[in-house]
Amino acid sequence: MLLLPPTPPHPPLFQEVYFKNHSKQKQKEVMEKNGNNHKLRVCVATCNRADYSKLAPIMFGIKAEPQFFELDVVVLGSHLIDDYGNTYRMIEQDDFDIHTRLHTIVRGEDEAAMVESVGLALVKLPDVLNRLKPDIMIVHGDRFDALALATSAALMNIRILHIEGGEVSGTIDDSIRHAITKLAHYHVCCTRSAEQHLIAMCEDHDRILLAGCPSYDKLLSAKNKDYMSIIRMWLGEDVKTRDYIVALQHPVTTDIKHSIKMFELTLDALISFNKRTLVLFPNVDAGDKEMVRVMRKKGIEHHPNFRAVKHVPFDQFIQLVAHAGCMIGNSSCGVREVGAFGTPVINLGTRQTGRETGENVLHVRDADTQDKILHALQLQFGKQYPCSKIYGDGNAVPRILKFLKSIDLKEPLQKKFCFPPVKDNISQDIDHILETQSALAVDLGGTNLRVAIVSMKGEIVKKYTQLNPKTYEDRLDLILKMCVEAASEAVNVNCRILGVGISTGGRVNPREGVVLHSTKLIQEWSSVDLRTPVSDALHLPVWVDNDGNCAALAERKFGHGKGIENFVTLITGTGIGGGIIHQHELIHGSSFCAAELGHIVVSLDGPECLCGSQGCIEAYACGIALQREAKKLHDEDLLLVEGMSMKKEEVVSAAHLIQAAKLGNTKADSILRTAGTALGLGVVNILHTMNPSLVILSGVLASHYVNAVKDVINRQALSSVKTVDVVVSNLADPALLGAASLVLDYTTRRIY
């Protein structure tokens, strides 16, 4: 039967309440920059029910901040056609004042009608835009109506903000979408792939905002305890959740005949499958009338298992697809929004080819009979998949409003294109527009556990430090607690976390994110999977590597090693670690044991090392070794000299040994010179093995060792390597910065 219940009044979407609370913040200086507290006059033009679901959250946000914006709403296209539900009414019910209604659809059943509709819109729009004089027009998507809007605004020197550019699908929509991209001055995209496509299309990456899909702001917070009443209203009193189907299929304008045939097969399969089904009418496109005739020919409007409707309000449509047993068709809603609920989807034909999809989507690219579609229904119906957030995290609208406020109307209107395409070493940081792209960095050392928010430029935005617990369980609990706290704080400090990088002592398999083995320096720290629990807790990708390797990566990205092909980093702290960069690449070795430089043996009968061997560099030169020697001197009353004092309960440390040496304690000075010599001999071995052009000493003891290392090189090294540069790192936190670079290098598509 054909259902057209009156659209019930419903309160404005949740965003209006949210933005009234959010609107008292910041950005007044941006308005002052635009002159005399000028409010940004924004024209939002909506053409159909689908684009309104994406534009409405933005409109609520704009409306809720009248001190920054003036909103004008223009309605055109299928919103004003009775056959498609007169959907302009839902805009009125959302309490928006419609400034202008434009009848722009030319009735017809072929491609020419679409062309004529574009032409009619181009004739009518100039008068409207002359009257409104907007500062910026917001255009959504890839419909032919949107192309008319963008063309009119561009020719009339009105700035254009395009929503959902850079995406890929399988019809003429692709060409229209990319044409609008070329006309638009600013871009809001939903996925990182779309962002990369825009950059590859030579769009200025400073004018691209990766925000997510605005509709996800509604989807991810949609909670309706009374969803059963919605289901019953549209599908009947006897329907249960997960026991019905939502079908939404549109003509493919580049192959109308085939798409009509596919629709016939879909209806045949649905009839055979014998489940209650809600069928929505197709979009206004060439071929839509023929699809309606197919529905009527097969008796869908009068079939007891089917409900055919022209329009469902978006709030109610969300509940219907969220609790459906399956959605079938070729609507972008199926591959985008429905993934937020984990509802199974069967995507038919080529209309969405190229779209990013979650695992809930099963594709039926082609079908000669109903059997393939019927089999897909049998496979998918009633399943429940993990929820997907490919297209958004629920915070798109705040980002878009911030983006709008950042627009400087005094900037030249003429677009600038970035030729050639963006190189992979150009920063994608647009922190003056959206959140600073950042990493969550974790440094797990022998003494402390530190977590930091690190920006793309290597700035430590926020840092947390705790003592490293002695047991595995306490240590892992503390890591998770500190990471969750830092991730929550990232929102407050305007940072977007791209992933988590973990720097840890011990031998690490970075491919699996597992600590294979650690010395006594970190107890209970062998065969530990760090990636899984951290990723599960934060829902972010996680990278793990040894702290010495991380120090080398930090130097490569932020420090002395930037642009150097071959260099070695030694990190001197509680232990001794290192990392080797060879031909710009980090060396891990066949069993991930490369660059364990602290365990190079420099004496066969030297002191015992924490690794169990004797005479390692670490046994002489690490913080623990110096502390051991300081305690020996203190026990013999040979540590303290004039100018030093210690409280009774104070623990003797390496710092006391260094202080004593500086104040003339010859025994303390001798110990430090021995430690420096041991480190220098290790460096000489490295020079003779790897022949780097640069050696970087990092960590708290580096400045005390650098001269000793240079002296040993001059005395012991072959003449061909004596010219090597030995420098002290200028990075304050190399392990944290290296952990961050694990994330930042990967997420910006650089090689690691």
Explain what the structure shows.
Homodimer. Homotetramer. Homohexamer. The hexameric form exhibits both enzyme activities, whereas the dimeric form only catalyzes the phosphorylation of N-acyl-D-mannosamine. InterPro entries: ATPase_NBD, ROK, UDP-GlcNAc_Epase, UDP_GlcNAc_Epimerase_2_dom. Keywords: Allosteric enzyme, ATP-binding, Cytoplasm, Hydrolase, Kinase, Metal-binding, Multifunctional enzyme, Nucleotide-binding, Phosphoprotein, Transferase, Zinc. The chain has 752 residues and is α/β, with parallel strands linked by helices. It folds into 4 domains: 38-214, Rossmann fold; 222-380, Rossmann fold (3-Layer(aba) Sandwich); 430-559, Nucleotidyltransferase, domain 5; 560-730, 2-Layer Sandwich (Nucleotidyltransferase, domain 5), CATH 3.30.420.40. The protein contains 25 helices and 27 strands. It has a 7-stranded parallel beta sheet, with helices on one face. Strands 4-3-2-5-6-7-8 form a 7-stranded parallel beta sheet, with helices on both faces. Strands 17-16-15-18-22 form a 5-stranded mixed beta sheet, with helices on both faces. Strand 24 and strand 25 form a beta hairpin. The protein is elongated. The relative contact order is 0.08.
